[in-house]
Automatic annotation (TrEMBL):
Residues 51-76 have a biased composition (Acidic residues). This is Uncharacterized protein. Residues 51-91 are annotated as: Disordered. It comes from Hymenobacter metallilatus. The lineage of its organism: Bacteria, Pseudomonadati, Bacteroidota, Cytophagia, Cytophagales. It comes from the Bacteria.
Amino acid sequence: MSIIYIELDEDMEMPCPCQRCGEWFDLHNGRGSKSWYPGTVICKECSDEEREEMEVEAAEQEEEDDYEEEDPDDFNPDTCPECGSDEAGAPICSQCGCLLVDQDDD
Ligand SMILES: [Zn+2]
Ligand SMILES: [Zn+2]
């Protein structure tokens, strides 16, 4: 006499094989797959892996979103440091008369 023996937990109510790893699990303990097998319940272990992978992908996408250059318009070199008047190209401010060019050279 031989009995086909499948290793199942005694308290499994609805044993079913996991689509991903093939292990038997109780449907009540499984999780709905969101990324790998949409609409399918997979075992908890695989679901955890799937969630980790999704979190990694989400984190990578966030990094890309954060990768923005700083706004170069924040600093306007043509603006007079004394009165704030826009003096593009002028050596002397027409509003307050202060010098707008560096006078380091003798
Ligand atoms: Zn699995
Ligand atoms: Zn000025």
